Amino acid sequence: MLTRIILLLLVFILPTSGFAAQSTAPASPSRVIVVGGNSNYPPYQFLDKYGQPAGYIVDLTKAIAGVMGMQVEIRLGDFGAIQKQLDSGEVDVLEGLSFSESRARQYDFSTPHSIIVQAIFARKGTAKVQSLDELKGKKVLVHRGGGMHNYLREKGWERDLVLTDSPRETLEQLARGDCDYAVLALLPGMHIIREEKLENIVPMASNVAPQRYYCYAVKKGNAELLAQFNEGLSILKKTGQFDEIYNKWIGVLEPQKTSWLVIAKYAALVVIPLSLILAATVLWSYSLRRQVAQRTESLSNALAELQRNQQQLVQADKMAALGILVSGVAHEINNPTGIILMNMPTLKKIFRDAERILDRYQEQEGDFSLGGIRYQRVRQEVPLILDEIQDGAHRIKKTVDDLKNFARKDDEARKEPLDFNDVVQTAVRLVDVATRKFTSNFSASYGNGLPPVYGNVQRLEQVVVNLIMNAGQALPDPSRAIEVATSYDAAAGKVVLKVRDQGSGIAPEHLQHLTDPFFTTKRESGGTGLGLSISANIIKDHGGDLGFESSPGEGTTVTLSLPAAVAGSKNGK
Question: What is the three-class DSSP state of 188?
């Protein structure tokens, strides 16, 4: 995960001088842009079994053409021949060419769309090597004309290189035993191993050479065409299409995060035995009721009492099941959360160090952009984004603790006098991105002169976040509004929050069950019925109330009231 973040950070902070041209008007829709590429370099670009262009960069090119209104013809073939066609003008742009200073004298490059990591491959059981220096003097398979061919040739290894016509042929010869080692890009190598089922080949070492940036390239001076591809890339990154294409082709070859299937497997180890116990309990209860019913009617009062006790038992079993389930799942959730919290300070230090370099660059070269954003704004926003990520990780951990508290109440969380307006404002900021997706008509007003309330900041923020998210999920379309307002009810001595939405409303028969554990009207979309139940318990623990007013089709108003704090007292009492 950290490696992925650093790689993406490098892509966005790489200085753009020498890589990009100034933006110009889009190409004429009537002109067909010929885009050339390598026909045998999966998963980036290759010909599929039907002879059609496919791969990560091919999809990227099609998406750029779509957002920029260009007509393109994608022509894949022998890369050396395609590169000559670019030189002769038969091809307008190469969709995949690694940047180097020598090539920059002949071609203009776009901002990078990929980072190529080189690796050493070998057959299983071959003597281990960890660096290129350990291969010196050995015969090594490389792809003719590829990045590593040029790199090793410049290092003077020409006589030790065994050249092949493609990365696929490189690994096939390695699998046959023609040589003991091969050097090529990691992801194409992993793709070929998987597709060709070369089970005796493994990557022995990665990052063995300087990382190479994969870009679009045009002949020197073709600034207009290059600007269109740069602009298209920027649009794809902002809309999320870039990530979708990346995950489709490249993400499947990268190290995977903890699978939800693994989490589900461990959860099943807890849920299945508990379900059997619960089923056995229900069957036993049913049998017991039948036996009692077969006796005399004089025992009807005892039977009614037994039924009431049974309802309490079923609820207690649910709470016990939740407690055991949470303890099993919490570990899986806390692991990735811990990784974020552990690595975020390092990432902040990296950005602070990069800041000084970028500041000097700005002083020397003037203002510039990173990822389509002016550097001055990046300098202000990125530290805030990193802080928000770290704060979000803390909140994930806190949410897991709250789930545990729901099943088994621990010691009371630390409380102190606080400004309730600050709590609501922080919650509104945390859900800002989500509310902008839910509605284009969100408003918040904060009452003046609110007295402090006595409580726990994080728990109250959790409640407000949950109420706003519920309001957003109830809206049928973004034109409907959400209103958040705080005020002070002097007569009751309470600070009040109202969250109103113009959503679909709640049926009258559901209103009294909203805070019941496990009750939800969103079961089909993954709702668990715990959000409002936990929120109600938190507010009750703070001596407050949570009320609901709603009519189907007319929206919902949630009223949260907390007692104002009195000097020297707790919970406002």
Answer: helix
